[in-house]
TrEMBL record:
Gene Ontology CC terms, in alphabetical order: nucleus
Organism field: Kryptolebias marmoratus
Protein name: DNA-directed DNA/RNA polymerase mu
EC identifiers of the protein: 2.7.7.7
Reactions listed under catalytic activity: DNA(n) + a 2'-deoxyribonucleoside 5'-triphosphate = DNA(n+1) + diphosphate
Length: 396
């Protein structure tokens, strides 16, 4: 053997949609660090930097063993100067000073808490921070008028920041299935988002709804929402109607990242699931002190008195419902399964490598000047000249 140093050199294709990314990650310390910098960039309105860190993290996620030295990374794609510096810092010193100082920065902490409120984006959070509002207490005391979404987000803050479990997702799936079956027989409901990729928890539960007969799905959402509301399942909902036909993203135009399906962003009222006695009162926390000894978020970021949530027989869960016509279902399913980076990479691959425009509605071939039909996700990967990647391997 020529190479006596036994340094494993990795080789990885450039686009995340060319790779199989499972939930198994041999380099979690490095990818957590890069993801934190990505999050900070995104919350600061620096989307370009955010994507660069996300791409770098995604490359490390597919490496088959832990990185031991920076020399192993030579030739890997998407590792820019900045990301490499962070990686080297961690490999050599055990931590990255930039990551540690970002974690501790008041700006980052305030952005995290405020954007953790459903309905509050980075821009609103930044405006509030510049007014001296850094936490929920200060937001309440400011007397700001919140919109309906933000008020609901604030009211249910503690519940919504708790990860949703698979069991809770399954319980909500049953409710949604009952709702759609009651208003229109034959409707199909598919769990999408992170749970379809095999994640054990999520920040919400995502569903795609369709009907095998084109057109029967029109007008479905308001009926489903009315049923759910009448049964007392909704704490908040906002339905946006389908605007695809009237949209200006025609052929040749880069389709917007945001799709135009009829959708409902909601907060469900879910009856609490029984937890094994040993686990109560939840997540190993006893009297608000976590297993790691840190005090759980104090009253500054709490929306109700400590312990009050545990006394309730229900919890609030974020749920997204999307309705697609069957002719667009494969594109909608692919688009709503994620991960967000995987989706972004698919669109980038389509545009740069294939001169095609991919959205959650359609795939357009700019050379042939025609839309390409697909009745399954496999069809879409084939049109794009990509090996099929199943949902469980789209965790980029
Ligand atoms: N999505 C979208 N348009 C939006 C919001 C989300 O197309 N306005 C897509 C995203 O691209 C993603 C999927 O919906 O593919 C799920 O988004 P989200 O729920 O935010 O992320 P998850 O991957 O499900 O992660 P989590 O478990 O945290 O919910
Ligand atoms: Mn989700
Ligand atoms: Mn998410
Ligand atoms: Mn979602």
């Amino acid at each position: 053997q020529e190479n006596k140093s036994e340094v494993v050199v990795f080789s990885v294709p450039s686009y995340a949609c060319q790779r199989r990314t499972t939930l198994e990650n041999q380099n979690a310390t490095l990818t957590d660090a890069l993801s934190l910098l990505a999050e900070n960039a995104e919350l600061s309105g620096e989307d370009g930097r955010g994507v660069a860190f996300r791409r770098a993290a995604a490359v490390l996620k597919v490496l088959p063993s832990p990185v031991k030295s920076a020399s192993q990374l030579a030739g890997l794609p998407c590792l820019g100067e900045h990301s490499l510096r962070v990686i080297k810092d961690i490999l050599e010193n055990g931590a990255s000073s930039e990551v540690e100082s970002t974690k501790e920065s008041e700006q980052f902490k305030a952005l995290k808490v405020l954007t953790g409120i459903f309905g509050v984006g980075a821009k609103t959070a930044d405006r509030w921070i510049r007014e001296g509002i850094h936490n929920l207490r200060q937001l309440r005391d400011s007397g700001h008028t919140l919109n309906r979404a933000q008020q609901a987000g604030l009211d249910h803050f503690d519940d919504i920041k708790q990860p949703v479990t698979k069991a809770e997702a399954a319980a909500i799936e049953e409710i949604v299935e009952k709702a759609v079956a009651s208003v229109l027989p034959g409707v199909r409901v598919v769990l999408t988002g992170g749970f379809r990729r095999g994640k054990l928890t999520g920040h919400d539960v995502d569903f795609l709804i369709t009907h095998p007969e084109e057109g029967r799905e029109v007008g479905l959402m308001p009926k489903v929402v009315s049923w759910l509301e009448a049964q007392g399942f909704l704490l908040y909902q906002k339905t946006t109607r389908n605007s695809y036909l009237e949209s200006k993203d025609g052929p040749g135009r880069p389709p917007s990242n945001i799709d135009r399906f009829e959708r409902c962003l909601s907060i469900f009222k879910l009856t609490r699931m029984e937890k094994p006695a040993a686990e109560a009162p939840g997540d190993g926390a006893v009297n608000g002190v976590r297993a790691d000894g840190q005090r759980e978020s104090d009253e500054l970021s709490r929306s109700e008195p400590a312990g009050a949530a545990a006394d309730r027989r229900w919890r609030a869960v974020r749920v997204d419902l999307v309705v697609s016509p069957i002719s667009q279902f494969a594109f909608a399913l692919l688009g709503w399964t994620g991960s967000k980076l995987f989706e972004r990479e698919l669109r980038r691959w389509a545009g740069y490598e294939k001169a095609m425009s991919l959205s959650s509605h359609a795939l357009y071939d700019n050379n042939q000047r025609k839309y390409l039909r697909a009745s399954s996700e496999e069809d879409i990967f084939a049109h794009l000249g990509l090996e099929y990647i199943p949902p469980s391997e789209r965790n980029a």
